[in-house]
Design goal:
Blueprint: H1 3-44, H2 50-59, H3 66-89, H4 95-107, H5 109-128, H6 138-164, H7 174-177
Helix pairs in contact: 1-3, 1-4, 1-5, 3-4, 3-5, 4-6
């Protein structure tokens, strides 16, 4: 079996990992948007509907910040799509590297979710005189998912390093001998 034929299963696995990664990052972004724009405002102002909250915020000459929130979160999806394209166009992508990229994206989802929710939280806090903190437990779920992704990323990197050896030590190369 020639080298390209041997790489086909690896390429196929890497592409599957990339597709799953894009879907997961997109779902995370969607959940973060629902948290910031729907669940958190509703939890911060119990007894009010979302439209009542939005009308009150707008009557205070403020805005929920929907477009800014979505722009931050869509940015992550666009990066994920770029990683998918890189994986698809690479001659021999390693599934563990592709998994590490997407686990890193999910780990970075926690700060991205925080940044995306600052505007809506501040608008609700200013309009209603409440804290801008997360009022909905969905924020905790997002942060926990990012923490799990970070721990999985560390696991993938350690496993890969043990399997292939540490990067940058020149193990078995001419430069290490000389």
């Amino acid at each position: 079996m020639s080298t390209p034929e041997r790489r086909q299963p690896q390429v196929r696995r890497a592409r599957i990992v990339a597709v799953v990664g894009v879907v997961t990052v997109t779902l995370y972004a969607a959940c973060a948007a629902v948290h910031a724009l729907v669940l958190n405002p509703l939890a911060a102002v119990p007894g009010r509907t979302l439209s009542e909250i939005v009308v009150h915020i707008e009557s205070s000459h403020d805005a929920l910040g929907t477009w800014t929130t979505l722009a931050v979160l869509v940015g992550g999806v666009l990066i994920a799509l770029t990683l998918l394209a890189i994986t698809w166009l690479s001659a021999a992508p390693r599934p563990s590297h592709v998994a590490a990229w997407f686990l890193g994206m999910l780990a970075a989802g926690s700060p991205a979710s925080f940044i995306a929710s600052v505007g809506p939280a501040a608008a609700v806090a200013d309009a209603y005189g409440v804290s801008g903190d997360d009022a909905s437990p969905s924020g905790l779920a997002l942060h926990l998912a990012s923490t799990v992704a970070f721990l999985a990323l560390v696991g993938v990197l350690v496993h890969d390093a043990r399997r292939t050896g540490p990067v940058g030590l020149g193990r078995g190369t001419a430069s290490a001998a000389g």
